[in-house]
Every structure is written in structure tokens, then in C-alpha cells.
Amino acid sequence: MRPLRFLFFAFFIIFFSKSASGQNIKFKTLSTNDGLSNNSITDLVSDNDGVLWIATWDGLNSYNGNTFTVYKHDLKTAKSIAGNNISKLKKDRKGNIWVFTKDKKISKYLGNNKFQNFVFDATPQNLMITQSGTIGVKTDKTSYEFINNEFKITQFVEEKKEDKSILKGILLNKYPDVIINDVLKDKSGHIWYATRRNGVYIIPNNTDNRNNEQVDHYFHDLYDPHSFNSDEVEKNIRRCFWQHMAWT
Prior knowledge:
Largest sheet: 4 strands, antiparallel
Number of domains: 2
CATH architecture of the largest domain: 7 Propeller
CATH superfamily of the largest domain: YVTN repeat-like/Quinoprotein amine dehydrogenase
Order of helices and strands: EEEEEEEEEEEEEEEHEEEEEH
Structural class: mainly beta
CATH topology of the largest domain: Methylamine Dehydrogenase, Chain H
Oligomer: single chain
């Protein structure tokens, strides 16, 4: 899996301020200089407490909006994370954070910097959310589902993927040449688009924009310290739009 070059929160905190013309959005860049364990990011997810979990090539990170906590494998600690090169993160219906490493090991975060690691009869090939919101694991021959605090052999159904084609079509009708990497609608109804080499587009949800005619565009500006440091934005992260708002 190639690293996500610019995850739309892993490197950017979004600040909102009110101005005479409406909302003014600023971005703050985060990196290893701020405590992130590695700048090569593979996945991220937010938990039920609003903490952002960031998978990297060298360690798992949690970010509470102010500081990073880094989790790495420790041979001397039985309940440390299973590995440092993290491929995938998942959050189950109960809010538990699960980790899948590049060498195909699986860990569940227990809290207090401790993890539970799981061993299977065959090498796990994938970690996923089931249709019922539990964690599912597939090996070459067997499927396992985490039920009543243990993995049991089942034939689970994977969670249905969200259809984003309608949301993508709204922007593409206006800008047909834009390549959309990711799209989401936040709790307020605003639609956010992460694009390839075109930064971020936002269609605000307000009474004056019922026909989606207003499209705000945010991109790298060499002379603006609060803009992106690249127009390549790989992924939107749903939490960022309501957890780190600073109204002034």
C-alpha cells in the first residue's frame, strides 16, 4: 500500500473564523516536527472520544487536537502493539480501535497504552468491518468474526460500502476535469471534496445555496501560511469538520 501523501487531517488542522464575508478557513500543517512518528501515513480513523488515530510506516499515533501519543512494539512488553508498520485501522460498532500491520498481525487497543494481540491458525489477509458492525478477519481459507470477546469461525458479510457517486456528480457537473480522491458530507450538510492536484472544494449547505451554485475552493498558496503545502489531497476525515472548530 502506498502512503497517502496528504490525508485531509493527518497534516492539516482546520480552523474556522467568522468574517464579514462569512467563514474563513485556515489550515495548520502537522508533521514529525509536531510529534507525529512518521510522515508516511497509510490510514487514519477517529474514535468515539474525538481522538484521531494515525497509522504510519513507523508506529501508531493518537492525536487529541493538541499532542501526539506514539505506540510502538516493545519486545519487553506483552501488551504492546504487534508491529510498527501499520497498514490499516478499523473502528468497530462499540468504538474499539483495531490495527492491522504490514506483516499481517492484528491488535485491539484496550486503553491505557495497552493492546491485545491475536494469533490465528493461518496468516490473516484482511481486516474489515462486518455488516453487523463487528470486526471480521479473513485468511486464505477461513473467515473469523469477533463475537463475545473472541474470534469465531463464521461466514460474515462485509459492511456495505458507501455510494459516493451522487455527491461526486454534484461537483463534476460544474468542474468535469477535476479528479476527486474522496468526498464526504459533514453533520452540517456541507460537502467536502479532496482532489488530485486541485486542493479542496467545499459546497456549503445554507439557505442561499440550495442549488449548490456556490463552490468554495481552497488550494496551496505560497504566500499564505495557513494554506495547504500541496494541492494533492488524498482523503477527507469526517471528524475534522466538527471536532476542531475554533470560532473567533
